[in-house]
Design goal:
Layout: H1 3-13, H2 18-29
Helix pairs in contact: 1-2
Amino acid sequence: CSLAKHICIDFIVHYQDRQQLIQNIQSNIGLRHEQIVQPAPLAPFAPLALLAPLAPLAPLAPLTSLAPFTPLAPFAPLAPLAPLAPLAPLAPLTPLAPLAPLTPLAPLAFLAPFTPLAPLAPLPP
């Protein structure tokens, strides 16, 4: 596996063990301790900055001119929409059956077990 891939795997496995991560990178790259950038605390992706010196990017050549763009072909006109078929006549609606008359409320049977109240005594004059 490539060195960069190996460092990434080490980083994933040892991301919480900073010392182990530094030792693995040192042994894989062969750099002295002073040459390794120390990761900042709580910056889990800082060790990936070590990959930058391994393969420096070549500077991009400046863009001098862009190739001429080919204009788009004009859109073909859309075909006219076909008219909608007329709606079939609706079947006559069946009238609703008349509602059954409401039954009167049943007597309040749950009040039957209660003893009726005794008549109130007359108030003294």
